[in-house]
Amino acid sequence: MSDNPYAPPESEAAPADPEVDGGGRYHAEQDGDNLVIDKTATFPKVCLKCGSKEVTSFQDHLFQYNPPYVFILIFLCTLPGLIAMLVLRKTAKMVIPLCSECDARWRSGKVMAMVGIGVLLLGILGPYFLGSPEMLLLGFLVGIGAFLAIIFLKVNPAMLRARKIDDSRVTIIGIHPDATRVILKRSL
What we know:
Elements: E1 28-31, E2 34-38, E3 57-65, H1 68-76, H2 78-88, E4 90-98, H3 100-129, H4 136-158, E5 161-165, E6 169-173, H5 177-186
Antiparallel strand pairs: 1-2, 2-6, 3-4, 5-6
């Protein structure tokens, strides 16, 4: 700290953790179980899903957030709801450090999301192409049920999600408490 009143302000360097390297300068805070962090933050080398310091891969991830009322608009009137969803969507692209086990679950979650979409489309379009229009409702219900089961049981536990995104910060759900502690310790 300088005694010179004309010297530019100084900030303290992020505390060094001998077992964790990486990470840039960012501001982060905890909001319950969620982590609120700058959109431009670079995470330290700690697995965000399990808290391990054995990071082996970095996944580019695009967090997306829509205000909750957009989904009500989609239900009430589909086209204006979809337009509102596209216009009001907020995104944050971040690089997620993961250990090898969590990386495998992350990739599996992405594949299962695609499988879920395929099952949904098969359930909806299958009866139509088989020439059985009376089975459309059953196919739709089975497709939706299987899709939701895959998303909630397989995809959500493997992935991180955004609870809220504003112009400069993102609130992330699903970060391991040990990783949160390291991130907060290295925050400005």
